[in-house]
Amino acid sequence: xxxxxxxxxxxxxxxxxxxxxxxxCFPAQAQNKxxxxxxxxxxxxxxxxxxxxxxxxxxxRGHLLEPLAAYWELRPRLDSASASEIRNFLNTYAGSYxxxxxxxxxxxxxxxRRDWATFTAEYPHYRMRDDREVRCYALATEAxxxxxxxxxxxxxxxxxxREAEDGCTYVAEHLHSxxxxxGIDLWRKARIAMDANRPRPAQAAVDIEAPRLxxxxxxxxxxxxxYLEKRIIAITRNRKELAVLAxxxxxxxxxxxxxxxxxxxxxxxxxxxERNWTWAVIGKQAAQKLQDNASSYFANVRRxxxxxxxxxxxxxxxxxxxxxxxxxxxxxxxxxxxxRKEATWVYWQARAxxxxxxxxxxxxxxxxSLLRSIASVRGFYEQLALEELGQSITVxxxxxxxxxxxxxxAQANPSLQRALYAIxxxxxxxxxxxxxxxTNLHSPGGMNDRELLAAADLACQRQVWDRCINTSERTKxxxxxxxxxxxxxxxxxxxxxxxxxxxxxxVYGLIRQESRFIMDARSHVGASGLMQVMPATAxxxxxxxxxxxFTPDQITDKEVNVAxxxxxxxxxxxxFEGSMAxxxxxxxxxxxxxxxxxxxxxxxxxIWAENVPFHETRDYVKKVLxxxxxxxxxxxxxxxxxxxxxxxxxxRNSAQAESNPDLP
Length: 664
Description:
664 residues; mainly alpha; 39 helices; 1% strand; disordered N terminus
């Protein structure tokens, strides 16, 4: 809704006031009075040094980041703080991220204490609503207070959590005692947890249904083959389910052995639903190992409706790899309504319809409708859908320019200001969290498209590229492609790419995914800089490209990082015969893995990428190639094809040179 002239005057006055005290355009390494105190408090918070935090807090009063400092001081002693002290904090910083952050933490404590009266009173004031365990506690209060039927949401949340969180386990126990959750629901949670190598939540689920048997979960996890060898027959349902858990656990290391035991011994003892689930897990594990028999294991599933979306997704991947389009169609159609809306499965369902329906015009129309529902430049499958519809990938028309009023509103937003300031003094994680809260969670549904564009513009102007990109990507009805795909250091990147005959769009596509253009980015494994180069790789590459004076401390220098990163990428691309998809996988997961992943049938690179066993690398490859296509459209102003960039992937051509064994 447009602001009135009076509101605009107020906004501009506030911006002017911020500028006057040096906050509207602070330097990248601001050192205003009190910054050192905040940085010292950050260290004390990480060490849980309550005394030091309390001693430092008075020095942080009046600082722009005072709400963060006060949160750090109260959070470590939240379990002993009085309700009045907590409410005083909430009132003092009302409307801020840190009010909601502390309320989130308090609600978790109230839930663990089973203080449902206070929880019920405080939950309506909780704005973020993004903590699944808090939501589980809230569902428990709804079930207790109003006898509401919350089973479907509770199960969905519980199944999605990887660890044995108290909130969702508690609501599952409560609903089970009230017969809103049954035994099969509990055993499904145990199966999902065992398949994810999470024995604790598996044991917690079994403990609700069969407490006297839950200790056996640890034995099954430790040695499933031994467990199965000692048991010849399972009569009761619970004993059968324990055998299912053992077969699931065995399949992780040896899907063929698990399949043999299921086919020749355990299959006749299990129910149809138990057999279907177990065969699907075996198929999933075989698919993750890229075994050609994965689809044959999935063929033993007699009812796709017995599977969850994760298993159905792997059934689709295995079928794609073997060209089995009917199985792709049946599995995508069996997915939940939520998953069927995801671009990945919309695209493959449409492709399956086109591949299996022959002259059926109604099916072709359905496929075209599915493709149109996702076709855009927004991502990998959205771009492929455009091409299936006969369209090229081009730069959409930019939205109308932001007004001074819209920009001023973003600049005057106190939460965005705090976030940018925190980032500027080295508190990036804290700044990112407040920024994301302000744009996504402070108001129901988050900011509207124009507000998001203005916030993204503010981040771009401050060269906080990750917030610029992430915020711009959230717009629903408009796309500012050049805002979503910025090109910092354009002269350096384009020049260097040209020198070594590397597509600059590919370089930008990779940098955007690696570091979001954060110059000092450092991963948990030690990769550094724009192109996230590992120290050993940097040293090796420097020698290969003739950078004789390279020292490890130079890796965060933007010129050096781009030179080494592009040099390594070119070596990898050449090693994989120009395949951008395989080179991206090698950049992310190391070259040895995609060398193995390419063995098997010759595939469309989109099918190959969807079958990459590692979720992180699978997502990475698709995003790098999608990024590359959009960057090429921006750089060249010419229509682009993602399909042409993808090509095909298969075993190395023996006539070509052997792979480089020294490539790190």
